[in-house]
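Researcher: Please translate sequence to structure tokens.
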Amino acid sequence: MLKVAMLSLALALLMSCTTDVTVSMDDRPTPTFKFKRNFSEVNTLPFFAVMEIASENRSVPYAEQSFDKNVTLWRIVPQVNDTPIDNLPPITYGKIPPGFVQEIPTDGQPPALVSGKLYQAGGPPVMMRGAIIRFEISNGKAAHVSIPGLD
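Model: Translation complete:
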């Protein structure tokens, strides 16, 4: 009986420490993003967006940002929103993966990512707190940047 209780406690601790949905990226100057679903009720990605973060939001805790000052550079949505997160293809900035359509910009390619600007990529943070990532382009590579109030 003690073993069952200890196992249950360990599993509960593991689940409580694991972010539900996470996003990772490689370090290429045009990064590729991958999602992973852990112990989440959220199973699909309603959209994927890349934003340029306004300079005044750079060091502000996430919940206190002026979100209207950030600019969405690229947004794609699935044509059918039933693909499980673990089955999503890798998403490379500016390249529309199979099964998605581009909403922003309405025509053409999104702007190139440039050194010195702060970007954020991911799904809806309200549904998937760990499914957003901030980064900069530095020395020809994408580098992860902490999000105040979230990381």
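Researcher: Any highlights?
Model: The first strand starts at residue 21 and ends at 25.
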